[in-house]
Amino acid sequence: MTTDVAPQGDLDSIPKLLARNAKVYGDKAASREKEFGIWQSWTWAEVQEETRALAMGLLALELAPGDHVAIIGANRPALYWAMVAVQMCGAVPVPLYQDAAAEEMAYVLDHCGARFVIAEDQEQIDKVLEIADRLGSLEQMVYLDKRGMRKYDHTTLNSYADVQAEGRAGHYRLEPILEQRIAELTYDSTCVMLYTSGTTGKPKGVVLSNRNIIEASRTSSEFDHLNAGDSVLAYLPMAWVGDFIFSIGQCYWTGFCVACPESAATMQADLKEIGPSYFFAPPRFFEGLLTTVMIRMEDASKLKQRMFHYFMEHARRVGGCILDGKPVSGMDHLKYRLGEFLVYGPLKNQLGMSRVRIGYTAGEAIGPEIFEFYRSIGVNLKQLYGQTEASVFITVQPDGEVRADTVGVPAPGVEIRIGDNGEVYYRSPSTFVKYYKNPESTADTKDAEGWVATGDAGYFEEGTGHLKIIDRAKDVGKMADGSLFAPKYVENKLKFYPNVLEAVLFGMNADKCVAFINIDLAAVGNWAERNNVGYASYQELAGNKRVLDMIQGHVEEVNASLADDPILNGCQVHRFLILHKELDPDDGEMTRTRKVRRKIVAEKFDDLIGALNDGSPTISTETEVTYEDGRKGLIKATLEIRDAKVFPRKAMAAE
What we know:
Rossmann fold
């Protein structure tokens, strides 16, 4: 298969797609944003005018082709327009995580050599100014929100509105330059540079071309029949590849509308108001929503509880079949329709999913029970498997073939093969160009034929052609007795319980597996209130005997299920403890996309791992933490270590 795919007509860049949309969908809503409790809306024609004004203003500030421009902030239409305006100028947008600390930003800004920064507000500008003396390339900063900015030195600082105003004022002079820059863009021009989460080291700058982004957007939109009538809520970090594909790539390809919530705190209410037809969320979001539902049901009247459980039992039995168009009896259909009226419909409305036609989750495995819950009430939730380097899509799940235990079949235009060591490889027109300033890593990841090593171990299921992902290839190994060690598989099983927020398993080359557990403060806190368990902090709740008993029950249930797995039964958890703090990106224990940095966690808590392995009943420890205002502090704790029941291992059947 060749990855050299030609563009559709002259649509070989995002700015050209914008021009097409302004012409074809000029009066249709393209962007929405809730501000001060009111939804603001911009048509495609208005978006084009706003974007071109900013682009001309950036040209007046002497933005040059090939320059890198950092975009920092929450999801705002103006920041999405900024990314396209930068592209119009022949420059490269580099979105950063808005919750990153100044030190984290320093690496990315220095590595890409950003000349310009476009930031949302004073908070983000302050972080850049804190490290500005270490950024030799930085020349100009633009801010969107003027609040608090009046007394700053504006020598190299401009408001977003002022840059647009300068662009509009000089349009006779600047428009010919802008048209020339847009005309020079090709399918192989760089569209965006996105930095990896950096689970194993420094983040890498993934260079994605117009070909990569537009082909991924085109084929995925065609696969799910996305069109200009669809809508999405953009609330995930703009620095994440998924948000770029959904909120810019697919949006600009299909012409659908992207809405931005007022804030993270109002996201759920805004989701309900917008009622998107297309929705993406990581498993953690769906798990949290379900936890909230179950907590509210605990406080409901006995009649409502009985009705809820009665109809949910019916939904679990036939809901998935009805969603997939499979035959069920007339009586089952009638009973499901009654359940839709009394339970499923009101529940989907509360969740903001009444209109969701296609829902996706990815990033981590989602619990089968959670996955089936949403599908049973009529939410067409699917799993996909992807990477930044793939422009998201590696596998997808066709309608009628959606299952919780696989990630689906190769996405349109994607080839997949399994290496001799079980590692998954892929290639497609959406495969990244290179890692910026890192030819060694590029060569290690992508070979001369375009095959990309995912770093994940998996296999194709016989008969269906569906891909199953086991774990990160580097994390899969052997225990001392030679049995397979696959930590992510076990960790995901533990996280299926709403009370478990995070789990980290250790056991490579050891004679037994041990685990750290983070409890979910919301779920366990609600349980504590209903069971008259007093607590004043996460640390106090985590050390409660009854909480330890509850988590021990979950661990032993997982062990019982693992015992029946002839391949992974050696991964049963022999001992565990509940960590005295939540793993936190600010402490370096997780990435900004909330993936555990396993090596850092192991090094930071090596005393706890030692105690788990040497049979100690307790361990006293001291840990440095970072507070919200950036200050450092120490927390001390004495943790109880529990032994968990392990079960006889089922032998592998002889071939």
